[in-house]
Write a structure and sequence with these properties.
By secondary structure, this protein is of the alpha+beta class. It is built from twelve helices and 18 strands.
């Protein structure tokens, strides 16, 4: 079977591409990366330095015409988590408009306008997507599932914490795969019992085995009217009905809670640390230690808003320094820079307390060493990239599992 052609949106510094191309089963034929808030397109510069600028587009995806994007077998991307509400357009009572600047609708537009739609979608987001917005828990994901259903896609999703499968970072994200009608996987999934697919036969269950909790699955149909979903889905403000594992076929959702089933090797924070010479600016100055202690410690205090209102503020303590015999905490975008912070990683070494190097942050996301090192790119910017990135090992395992399933089903057809 030939390599599958991939279109990579919201490419960042290329985490999806790295994971998929490591399997040798996928080839990225077009990519897009655009950072709207900065003049210098740092992530795109890194991407081009690593993968070349051929078929790479550094423009706002909302301005890129669909016909400029080559046909592909699979569309992938880690799109920003925003507010996915829908309205009816005034010009066309049947038309739907999402909020301007919401990048989900760029994916939707490409899928709608492509004559040859990709058979597969592979998308990633923060797990908060399953329960946003706070006023209508789960509405945003319901809008996505319904709109994908309307376009002819069946969807499976899973919240995966990389550390639960032996990877070096406690990073929890929701991944979803979608299969276009007419594809072998769509057919197989549609004819499978939903629980069998989620627990044993699906792509996620092969790549990342799970066990089911004792609760029964939740089953419900999504309204066919997207505006109705946008306006009224879960308007009673209860918990989101979307659990950490689920499928949606023809607008019917089946979802359940699962837990990771893994007994293989595990990578700890200590395993990724550099042992050689560490630049002195990474060590914490003793004069700054009280500030670090305060920020990492528990607090119960009265604070004031800018308007002068007083309020009670409390938070628990953080492990300080970070435990070396555990996978690391989640990297966030503010990881870089010398200033004391509650959320930056700090490790104890024989020479004192220090922050993590960019190469160590890359290892926590399973990127190649020095992937983001480029002239003109600061260490703080490299840390920012890793705060935005995904764990490459997860993409690699899901990609390999997907390819095996496609290959298996095609061979079954030929025999």
């Amino acid at each position: 079977m030939q390599q599958l052609k991939v279109c990579e949106l919201f490419a960042g510094v290329g985490g999806f591409r790295l994971g998929l191309e490591r399997t040798n089963r996928f080839k990225v034929v077009w990519s897009n990366q655009w950072e709207p808030s900065t003049k210098m397109q740092h992530a795109s510069l890194v991407y081009e330095a690593r993968f070349g600028n051929e078929n790479h587009c550094n423009a706002n995806i909302e301005t890129v015409k669909t016909e400029e994007i080559p046909d592909h077998d699979m569309l992938v991307g880690g799109f920003p988590c925003q507010d996915y509400s829908v309205a009816t357009s005034l010009k066309n009572s049947k038309g739907l408009i999402g909020k301007k600047g919401v990048l989900w609708w760029s994916i939707h537009r490409i899928l709608s306008e492509k004559k040859n739609k990709p058979n597969y979608l592979f998308l990633e987001n923060v797990d908060r997507l399953l329960k946003s917005p706070s006023t209508q828990r789960g509405r945003d994901f319901a809008v996505m599932l319904r709109s994908l259903s309307d376009l002819g896609y069946a969807v499976e999703w899973r919240v995966i914490n990389a550390a639960e499968y032996g990877m070096p970072q406690r990073r929890r994200r929701v991944f979803f795969l979608a299969y276009f009608k007419g594809s072998k996987i769509h057919q197989k999934m549609k004819n499978s019992h939903p629980e069998d697919w989620m627990l044993r036969d699906g792509i996620f269950s092969e790549a990342f085995p799970v066990t089911q909790t004792h609760q029964k699955p939740t089953v419900f149909d999504l309204d066919e009217d997207l505006v109705e979903i946008s306006s009224n889905f879960n308007s009673e403000k209860g918990l989101s009905p979307f659990l950490n594992t689920g499928i949606c076929v023809d607008g019917k959702v089946t979802t359940l809670t699962t837990s990771a089933s893994y007994d293989g090797n595990r990578t700890m924070l200590s395993d990724i640390l550099e042992q050689g010479n560490i630049p002195s600016e990474y060590y914490i100055d003793e004069a700054d230690l009280p500030k670090w202690d305060y920020l990492k410690g528990s607090k119960k205090e009265i604070r004031k808003t800018k308007a002068g209102f007083e309020y009670h503020y409390s938070e628990g303590s953080m492990v300080f320094p970070d435990a070396l015999d555990q996978p690391s905490r989640t990297i966030i975008t503010g990881e870089g820079g010398k200033s004391p912070s509650r959320f930056k990683h700090v490790v104890q070494t024989s020479k004192g307390l220090r922050r993590l190097l960019p190469v160590e942050l890359e290892r926590l996301n399973m990127f190649p060493d020095h992937h983001t090192q480029l002239e003109g790119i600061s260490d703080a910017k490299r840390a920012f990239f890793m705060g935005n990135a995904l764990v490459v090992g997860i993409v690699e395992k899901i990609g390999a599992s997907l390819f095996r399933k496609i290959d298996h089903l095609e061979k079954q057809l030929q025999s």
